[in-house]
């Protein structure tokens, strides 16, 4: 006698996702969404806490797979945004639940990247250490860096700690983050990078980071790098000098700013660098 198989009953989370609006099969656009349809699903998911978050992550599929998981992604994103609006407790709990699904290798890099992208919207200090461990991951470092950077100044210590342990594009991303966050505590390490790093891209990015931080102690390092550079690297490094001078002047360090402008005015003698002399002259005159 042949066994009769019956389809498994969808879980309550799958049933909730089934109530999410679906894109039109022709133009892939959401249409005819009933008022309150998404909100009702999200409220039930939010009541499910961590169990609901993990269940949604478990339902994520591969991009371009046989079956679209867009309702799952829509539900998870809506949940993240809603919890962030409710308050700090809901935001932090959702972020921790999401971050807990990043450990191990049972999920693909593509799925974990999507989780990191959602953490840009709800991540905070409670998940920063977990994200920092991924800054050296060959496939996830960029998404991890973006999620950390979205947290603002609280992420600076994690980028600072990662700087000695990363190389190549990961190192460049960490340097850029420290400059974007204007982390003055990383200035010494960035000066060493600008002076001695074997990667010329890292040296240039370190010069920009120091300039954006407005570190007066980096004046000599940044000017030397610009003087020694050639081609487009010289343009970029010189722009870092101008940025440093601008930030020093804005911070009231006018003598330091003037010294940079005078150096650029006196050393950029080639016709192709006339614009640098012009900027320096105008700055000194003002």
Report on this model:
By secondary structure, the protein is an all-alpha fold. The chain has two domains: 7-130, Alpha Horseshoe (Serine Threonine Protein Phosphatase 5, Tetratricopeptide repeat), CATH 1.25.40; 151-286, Alpha Horseshoe (Leucine-rich Repeat Variant), CATH 1.25.10.10. Helices cover 65% and strands 0% of the residues. It contains 16 helices and no strands. Helix 11 (187-196) packs antiparallel against helix 12, helix 14 runs antiparallel to helix 15 (254-267) and helix 15 runs antiparallel to helix 16. It is elongated. The termini are far apart. The mean pLDDT is 93.
Strand-helix topology:
Blueprint: H1 12-18, H2 37-47, H3 49-59, H4 70-86, H5 88-100, H6 109-122, H7 128-132, H8 141-149, H9 156-162, H10 168-180, H11 187-196, H12 200-213, H13 219-228, H14 231-250, H15 254-267, H16 274-285
Helix pairs in contact: 2-4, 3-4, 3-5, 4-5, 4-6, 5-6, 6-8, 8-10, 9-10, 10-12, 11-12, 12-14, 13-14, 14-15, 15-16
